């Protein structure tokens, strides 16, 4: 059975996922595409033999759409996800689930009312082989309880439109999600401090930033976010536990010795670094949808949690760096909680 | 357009490729399966909604088969590949192309007569990211001309049926193919010597073996083949050139520090080590077939060359380790040669 | 000319340095040894043909002692160093220079009054090849200005007598000194937070601890101190700068592949890890003394600074983790300052 | 007790060892220096307060010389070593022990006649920490019996005077000695083959060369000797055994990430790469001499063996690459043999 996917949002990331659904992942077809730019929607749809309904609501309601992929502008996510849930259709929403905690909660509530999980949020790191092996090591208990996690998230450069708050909202949010999952623990406070700034940034931007998080069980996380590091796209993660530590590997790269140096290439682009993770993410999502099962990836609750924690980090940044308690609702039973 | 593939040979490797064509690679379907064991063929075919014609010839002749995959027992390869070429259908043949140089040449001649390439041989390393990066580095000329290649091919263990000649025929053959491609050069002599044997082998087996190859331009290759190395499946390759060297990376693996050691896992299985290469191999083959293009992977000529070089290595092993000249025919124009 | 060294304190570290001065470093002899345990002093002295004067003061005053090495119990350091300065003799004092900032200042003042540097403090990391190379890279300017330093200082285990304050006083003090030197910058605030504690500690101990430091130029340092990490003695340091980063190497260690793992040994002991640094430290100190030059290693001022910063860290730990401003006097001209 | 060393040969290597004996190693003094250039001898001697006798014989006979260091031109080694043995004085001879097997044997016979070992030959790799750890791993038996050793010995460049035979005599001789010791096995045959030559060499030189050795127990060694590799001084050694392998580490070096690359420095000079090994070599030699013990380093027999094996390698090179049997006498009891 082929899962017929309708895609809302035909920009860069939308087109990349359409390529993935049509060329990389088996068992899927893209049958409908919408975009705020109708011309673009029509062009992109034509390439894959899909139709271009006038609105997201039309797409969601189409009998030729089994599942919905939301890759539109962030502020429109909640509306489309809610509509998909209302229609009882599985929906994959690129991060963020919604731009406000309130909207995230509305989705959570709608899903609870529906009674089973329909929503998956696009945090792809949970599908990366390195993180998965790290989780296996931690979960095995061989190293005892995790105590500390050291992380770095570095981009070579960002455009002028990238704001200081986006360091948490767009960048650190990936670590926020993957660490909650990796540690099977909840983040209860956030703090953001700003070291000396790099000269290689636009003036308005605080870069680098260092974020500190604490979990319910007392694990402390430090995360360097440095989005103009120049040398490459570099993701580091090391979990220190009672009997040892486990570290995310650098991507395999041929070693070259020449001119007095032994060197390996550092990735330059997040799309390359996590290409396999994106593929796996969609492969597993399509498989779950095809099986009529609940999705196994990040839930609406995870999307809510990420937003709430991100909000706390931004508040810390905006108010001079205090520790900000994360104000999270009790976790509903649908998501493994007791509420 | 979906490429409809007929699969001849439904054993372990055949089934793995069927899974790949149906679950991993887009744009392909398996429409027919045959096997010497008709019951097995029927069962495997049923799982993917394919038919199970009585013979390979029937499968090749079927109008529902666009392309043929040969994964049957090695001695039957030539017959099926020749039939596919006769039918003018693209055919992917697992290594070896044929078990004798004569049969390989028959296929080469048939393909020449046909006038364009139809055959691809299943040497998957050319599709491995590490080897591809190494080839880019070498081809860029930044390191000057390659002079020496050091290789190791180690398996944790082999079953009793694995013979001393299989070290060349089944194991080293992967390096033979990938090095010819990597260096864009031809192997002109082979030699096999036997160090002290490991205690961890069946008595009849010479293990480890060391193979030396020389290319037309004078590059020398040493290849350790050690198929009972116990510790894992380990593939090493280092090309030394005039201005430096380039080395195949070990697969990325989380680092763990515990109990006084920093450690990473060594793969245990060739299917894991080259899983991505297999996927890419089939993805590119299906894309070429779908486009009506000649395949870009190893050709019938490469299959012939591998067999002739392997034969020379086995002759060296069987006669006490002399240098044996590779007796290769001139390369036809169809394969980039002048004959 | 042989430098005749008198050693005050014949305990484990004293004996190790006596071995170093007599067996490893050329140009030195140990001519006198004292200890609070006179019998031990006599025995240790006898082994190297030295005398055992009754008191440190006698030793310092002896015409057969050119330079003094203080390796006695920390609270006695100040008295002996002051006596050596009063006698105008070069003195090497194991860390800490003194156990209170006031005593450190008294030494600084005495040295200023003397008019030239006589004191070197035993922070050996400045003599480690890895840190020296890192300093070269930073100082070259090739990476731009340093912005962040990530450090870890892990010991496999500590005895019951090790207190929570010692994490700063005895352990982190090494990073405090080496980072001031590495960055050529002053630490202006300290903060200590406590993650979830390891089960592998004595109950009274807060372990691990994380320390945050900020420098005058805004560089932020995070330092994990984990003294019951179990797996080994592990020192990590990574300096992130505007154009890239530089990382301290792990000690070279043979790689072993067996039983599915590639592994290297992690050092178990600080004396092994920094054995070469200790040797170099004493070699350079003896060379400076022999040349009649001022010592080039950590100064009395550095000893004072380390104590003041350590005090701030302990105050943070003791008061629940606030950021504590380092209350440091202006740096005198003798130590490169303007006071 | 200070060991008073007389040094025969005040060239570059002689002066470096004089520095080592006077500045690095404790318990030694250089009391006499000779050289074929009497002026140079006088100058070098003056620097360390030594005398400059007219001849090596005078130096050896001097009552102020306890032990002799021979660092003169290779062809003069035998004469001086024989004179030292005749005088019953410990003698450290830089490699080679002698330039012909016959002269080496004369020294062996003289030492046998003397009845105890006096001679140590200057193969410093046995004193390198990496090789020592590798030997510990092999000797522990944890990896089973060694079967194969892969080596590379690369220099960035060599001067015009370096001949093709020197690849064995001056370069590979280090591996020949250290592998005999590492494996506790004897080399019984040698073969040298020549790959395509690098453009970066003087025309008369065959570079690179590949040498194959076989030991009495059947271990096979391949050694790449590449003395114009350009990128650095690089020593590789990997021993493959029945249950796993052990590999010499690269020297520790700070890692730098910048401009898209992660890189570490490759040493450029053998004196840097093996500086610690040279120091340890002399430290242990002086300790043995001071204790009146036989030296523990490479013996006269090892010097003879290295020369005989080197001769076989050169013969192979000169005669087109055949396997040449090493023609070694039976090992005398003085050196652990039965003759």
TrEMBL record, chains A, B, C, D:
Residue stretches in coiled coil: none
Superkingdom: Bacteria
Any one GO MF annotation of this record: nucleotide binding
Cited InterPro entries: Gfo-Idh-MocA_inositol_DH (IPR050424), Gfo/Idh/MocA-like_OxRdtase_C (IPR004104), Gfo/Idh/MocA-like_OxRdtase_N (IPR000683), MI/DCI_dehydrogenase (IPR023794), NAD(P)-bd_dom_sf (IPR036291)
Keywords for the protein's UniProt record, in alphabetical order: NAD, Oxidoreductase
Catalytic activity: myo-inositol + NAD(+) = scyllo-inosose + NADH + H(+)
One Pfam short name: GFO_IDH_MocA
Domain annotation Gfo/Idh/MocA-like oxidoreductase C-terminal: ranges: 135-323
SUPFAM superfamilies the record matches: Glyceraldehyde-3-phosphate dehydrogenase-like, C-terminal domain, NAD(P)-binding Rossmann-fold domains
Biological role stated in the UniProt entry: Involved in the oxidation of myo-inositol (MI) to 2-keto-myo-inositol (2KMI or 2-inosose).
Subunit structure: Homotetramer.
Similarity comment text for this entry: Belongs to the Gfo/Idh/MocA family.
PANTHER family: INOSITOL 2-DEHYDROGENASE (PTHR43593:SF1), PTHR43593
UniProt-recorded name of the protein: Inositol 2-dehydrogenase
């Amino acid at each position: 059975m082929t899962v017929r996917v309708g895609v809302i949002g035909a920009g860069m990331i939308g087109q990349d996922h359409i390529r993935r659904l049509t060329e990389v992942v088996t068992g899927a077809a893209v049958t409908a595409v919408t975009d705020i730019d109708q011309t673009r929607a029509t062009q992109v749809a034509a390439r894959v033999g899909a139709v271009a309904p006038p609105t997201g609501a039309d797409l969601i309601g189409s009998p030729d759409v089994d599942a919905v992929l939301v890759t539109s502008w962030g502020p429109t996510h909640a509306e489309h996800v809610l509509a998909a849930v209302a229609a009882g259709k599985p929906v994959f929403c690129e991060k963020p689930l919604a731009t406000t905690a309130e909207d995230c909660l509305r989705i959570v509530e709608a899903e609870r009312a529906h009674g089973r999980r329909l929503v998956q949020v696009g945090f792809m790191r949970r599908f990366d082989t390195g993180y998965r092996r790290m989780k296996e090591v931690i979960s095995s208990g061989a190293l005892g309880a995790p105590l500390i996690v050291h992380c770095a998230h570095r981009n070579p450069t960002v455009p002028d439109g990238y704001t200081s708050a986006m360091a948490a909202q767009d960048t650190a949010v990936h670590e926020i999600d993957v660490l909650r999952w990796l540690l099977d623990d909840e983040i209860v406070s956030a703090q953001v401090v700003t070291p000396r700034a790099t000269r290689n940034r636009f003036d308005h931007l605080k870069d680098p930033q260092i974020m500190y998080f604490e979990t319910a069980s007392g694990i402390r996380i430090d995360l360097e976010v440095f989005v103009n590091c120049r040398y490459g796209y570099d993701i580091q993660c090391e979990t220190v536990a009672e009997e040892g530590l486990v570290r995310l590997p650098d991507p395999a790269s041929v070693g070259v010795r020449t001119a007095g140096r032994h060197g390996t290439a550092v990735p330059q682009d997040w799309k390359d670094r996590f290409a396999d993770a994106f593929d796996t993410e969609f492969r597993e999502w399509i498989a779950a949808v095809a099986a009529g099962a609940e999705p196994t990836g990040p839930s609406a609750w995870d999307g809510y949690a990420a937003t709430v924690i991100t909000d706390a980090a931004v508040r810390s940044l905006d108010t001079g760096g205090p520790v900000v308690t994360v104000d999270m609702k009790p976790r509903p039973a649908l998501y493994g909680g007791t509420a």
